[in-house]
Amino acid sequence: MSTGFFWDERCFWHGGGNFAGMLPVGGLVQPMASGGLPESPESKRRLMNLMDVTGLARELDLRHAPEATREDLLRVHPASYLDTFKATSDAGGGELGRRTPFGPGGYEMAALSAGLSIAALEAVLRSEVDNAYALSRPPGHHCLPDYPNGFCLFANLALAIQSARAKGLVERVVVLDWDVHHGNGTEAIFYEDPNVLTISMHQERNYPMDTGDFADRGRGAGKGFNLNIPLPPGTGHIGYIATMERIVLPQIRAFNPDVIVIACGYDAAAIDPLGRMLATAETFQVMTQQVKALAQDLCGGRLMMAHEGGYSEVYVPFCGHHVLAEMAGSDITAPDPFGEVFPLRQPNAAFDRFVDGVLDEMLAAL
């Protein structure tokens, strides 16, 4: 099996300015020793380091890609936004939206991040690789067409999908977003599109706090083709796998896509600073196993993932290694250093029954 891995060192050079966590430094907010936003390059770079050390990187098809062109970007983002972003980037950087600061060269780095996703999806659809993973940074699933949001400057996956559609490579696409935060940008872009089924399973009212409701099912021709699955904090491994089995996988099967695309965030992991969901590296591995098998049944194995959130520099590398080893069908492992502790911190049976009740209500309303 051939798994394409698309990455570029320059994506690690994107900077988020003088922040302490989610707060701008100043007043009573003291700078942190680590500096900057939680969306730092280190969790991604350390994933690359771990794959080098275990040898998994040598089993992947490592590739680079060019920046997304202006033509690519205009398929989602208006010219006014591109022009303002480029001018601000050339002038040394700034912030155009909500929690999206960038430095000089930020436009080019974001275009490169989008280019990695575009190339990864195209490689899958052209059967150059069996499946593919884009180590995109900055991430993309919060970005609206004209408004950057939540660390996201371009809508990476939406751009990849629209590029592939423009080239006649695909018609029906599922976007499954398991980042801990609602994929509001992807939802907004495809909200009226019946050929793109968007599914977001996220921590309820985490970020953005005003989007992600189960009742938001799409509009016009796209009615019924958007599915939000807001889950309670602390859902844990059993709850995530139950959500996949009872709701997500049947919905994807019913839609019968040409390709499955994953917004692959690791911030639902147990020690992530921006999430409270108690998922483990095994959780992400099992979910990958599930969608990989379903893709094999439905669409010739065509599966593509793009890296989204995940802010634990310690744990993201192990979660990502579990996912990529599963994608590649590799026997190489990076044992979870929290493999004994995190299972003991999972919710008890009473909470699992509560989550089952939440899922029952959603299923009854579908």
Automatic annotation (TrEMBL):
One of its GO terms (molecular function) is hydrolase activity. Pfam families: Hist_deacetyl. Keywords: Hydrolase. It comes from the Bacteria. Its EC number is 3.5.1.-. The keyword Plastid does not apply. GO terms for biological process: epigenetic regulation of gene expression. Belongs to the histone deacetylase family. This is Histone deacetylase-like amidohydrolase. It comes from Octadecabacter temperatus.
